[in-house]
Amino acid sequence: MTQERMILGADEQYCSSCGAVVKKTAELCPTCGVRQQSHAQQSYAPRTEGKNKWVAFVLAFLLGGLGIHKFYLKKYAQGVIYLLLFWTLIPGIVAFVESLIYLFTPEDTFRQRYPND
Ligand SMILES: [Zn+2]
Known about the structure:
By secondary structure, this protein is mainly alpha-helical. It has two domains: 2-44; 53-113, no CATH class. It is built from six helices and two strands. The protein has a two-stranded antiparallel sheet with strand order 1-2.
């Protein structure tokens, strides 16, 4: 999104609230006064990032019987169980239900449930 806008200086970023260009070192946006989160701080706080529910949904829907979505979600032990029980077709049924659960889970909730780290 931001790539389409004017090129930023190396020490500049967009205000998280109003979109004005502010210095990365600025604590507050001079335009709207909202406290800024620097990129450095964001990289230290990856909790806001998480797994993409659409990727999980597609994996569970197409490859669920093999537990691929469990590996994507870092539920490795569960993924191995799916693999071991693949021949029973039960994991495929469970994964189909899970894909529907993923589909109807809000993206924010999903990211909190399955963080990246
Ligand atoms: Zn602002």
